[in-house]
Amino acid sequence: MEIRQLHYFLKLCNELHFSEAAYQLGISQPTLSQQIRVLEDEVGVPLFDRMGKKTEKTEAGAILEHYAMQAVRQLENAKQAIADLTAMNAGSLRVAVLPSDLDYRLTALLIEFHKEFPRTKVQVVPSLNIVNQVLDNEVDIGVGLSAKPDSRLHRTPFYTETYSLYIRQDHPLAERNVISVEDLGAVPLVMYPKGFYGRDLIDAWCLERQTSIDALMETGSAASLFQLVQAGIGGTIQPSRLIESLRSTDIRSVPIQDSPVRDLEIVYRNDKYVSLAAKTFIRRLETFFQGDG
Amino acid sequence: MEIRQLHYFLKLCNELHFSEAAYQLGISQPTLSQQIRVLEDEVGVPLFDRMGKKTEKTEAGAILEHYAMQAVRQLENAKQAIADLTAMNAGSLRVAVLPSDLDYRLTALLIEFHKEFPRTKVQVVPSLNIVNQVLDNEVDIGVGLSAKPDSRLHRTPFYTETYSLYIRQDHPLAERNVISVEDLGAVPLVMYPKGFYGRDLIDAWCLERQTSIDALMETGSAASLFQLVQAGIGGTIQPSRLIESLRSTDIRSVPIQDSPVRDLEIVYRNDKYVSLAAKTFIRRLETFFQGDG
DNA sequence: AAAAACGATAGTATAATCCTATACATAAGG
DNA sequence: CCTTATGTATAGGATTATACTATCGTTTTT
C-alpha cells in the first residue's frame, strides 16, 4: 500500500469511473486498473464493484476511503508544517553566547528578531564553552570568541571588539578621551578572575607592554562588576560596545589606547543543516553589530 | 513520499542509526540512506543531522515523524477495519426476499444469524421483483423463485417447495392426510390475485389437470389470507413449510397430492463481490431449509 | 597510529510501474 | 436483433525505481 496508490484510489472513489479518474490523474486507464488491483490484492477484498458500466464502492472501499483520506491529509499537513518551518514562520533555534554578551547586548537583537519572526522559538544559553556545545549539538549556532580552527566547525568572524575602561563619572579619569596602559596602573580595578577569557586577554595585553594590572576585586559576573564600578570600588575593563546597553548614567566608558581586541565569530557544525531560522539570525546578528559599530 | 519510505524513516527515527535501522528493516544500509535522501529531497530540508557517528533528527524530521506516525496508524486502522469486515465482525448485507417468505419463515433465520454475527447489519426488503433489485444493485443477494437464466446472474437453487391446503381445523378436509386436485374444487378458496406468482403457479397446475379453481376472495397479502382462513371464509393454497412458522392452532395444513412445486434459489450478480457476510448468510439459509425439510 | 564504526557513493541487477494495443463485456441505438 | 459506443481487463514491452554488493571517506575509539 503506497501513497501513490491511495491517491489513485481516492480519485477513483470520487469519479467512480476508471477512465475518467485515470485521465484526471494523468495516467492511463490500464495503469489505474492495475494499481487498484494491487491494492485490492493487498487488503484481500475488492474495493469496487465493477458492474458493467457502473462502478461502485464496496464496503471495504468506503472504509479505506475514510482512512486513506485522513492519512493523506496528515502527510499534507507534514509537508505544510515543514514548509512553514523553512519559511521562517515557525521552527526553533538554539544559540550559545557568552554570558556578558547575553546580559548586555544580545537582548535587543532577540527582541528585534522576535518582532520579525514571532513564531520562531529562540533559546539562548549563556556559555563559557561555546565550541563544545556546538560540537555536541546542544545548540545550533554559537556566538563567541574566535577559537582555534576545527575542521568540524564553520566559523564566520563578524565583529572585532576593542576595550574600554568603565569607571564612575566622579573619578578623575572619567573625563579623559582616551586611556593609556600606564594610566591603568593608577586605577583600582575590578576584573574577572584569572582563567576567564575577558581577564586573560587583558593580562596578556599588559604582559606584552611590560606591565600588569592589580585587580582589587574579582567576580565571574559582568553584572556584579558593573555594580562594583557604580559603587565606586574601582574601574573595570570591558568591551567598548557594552556601554550602549548599559542603563547607567553614573558610569562612563573611556577607550583604551592601543586596546586589546577580541574577535567575535559565529560557529556551527559544518555537517549540520543551517535552518533558515539560523541563517536569518546570523544575518541579523551581523547587521546588528555593523549598525552598532 | 511513499508509505515504504515513511516506514524506513520512522524506524530510523527510533534507532537514529542507519546501519541498525536498515538491519531491522531487512534492507541494506545504502538502500536506507538512499530512500531517506529521496524523502529529504522531496520535503526540501534534511530530516537528520549526520554528525560523524551521531545521527539526530532535525526539526523537520521531528515534525515529519509526528505526522507520519499518525498517517501510518490510519492505514493500519483501515486494514484492520477491512479485516474485521471480512471476518464477519462487521459489515452489512442487503437481501431481497418474497414478502410471504419474510413474514412467515425468514425471521427465524435472521434471529439466528444475528446471534452469530451481532455486528453485521442485515437489511431485508420484501420484493416482488427480486431479480431486478439484484441487477440494479439495490440488494446484495436475492432469495426468491427460480427465474429465467440471465448471464449476469449467479443462481443457486437451494430448496424445492411443495404446496398444501391450509384450512381451519373444523372443516371436514382438515382431517385428511392428503388432498387431490378434485377435492380442491369442493373447497371455497381465498387466493392471491391473478398475476401473483403464488396464484399463477396454482392456476397453471390446475390447467394441466383440466380443472380450475374458483377463488372466493383474493388479497395480495399472505397474512390477510391466513386471517380469512382463520375466520372460516375458506382455505388457501400456500407452500407447505409456512405452517411451521404459523402460530395458529386453528389452521391445519394438508399436503396436496402431486403438488405444484416452486423452486427457491439464491441469486446475485456474478460480477459482484460476494462478501463473507453474504457467503455465510447463504450457507445459513441452505442449512436452515435443509434442517427444516 | 591503527583499527573499528558509520554513512555515502558507484555500479549493477531486479522488480515495479507505466504505456500502447487489443480483447471482452455491457449498455445504448437504429 | 444487430450494430455501435462505452467501459474495463489483459498482454507485451519500455522505462523507472528500488535493491543489492563492493568500496571509499570520515570520525571515533583503542
Can you tell me the CATH topology of the largest domain in chain A?
Answer: D-Maltodextrin-Binding Protein, domain 2
Biggest interface reads: A-B, 45 and 45 residues
CATH architecture of the largest domain in chain A: 3-Layer(aba) Sandwich
- Pairing-aware structural class of the strands and helices of chain A? alpha/beta
Instruction: Please mark out the parts of chain A with pLDDT under 50 across 5 or more consecutive residues, or reply none.
Output: none
**Which class of the largest domain in chain A in CATH terms?**
Alpha Beta
Mean pLDDT of chain A: 87
Q: Which percent range describes the beta-strand content of chain A?
A: 15-25%
Task: Give the total of domains of chain A.
Answer: 3
The value of Rg of chain A in angstroms is 32 Å
User: How far is it from the N-terminal to the C-terminal residue of chain A, by CA?
Assistant: 60 Å
Oligomer: homodimer
How many beta-strand runs of chain A? Answer: 11
Keywords (chains A, B): DNA-binding, Transcription, Transcription regulation
Protein name (chains A, B): LysR family transcriptional regulator
Family (chains A, B): Belongs to the LysR transcriptional regulatory family.
Organism (chains A, B): Paenibacillus hodogayensis
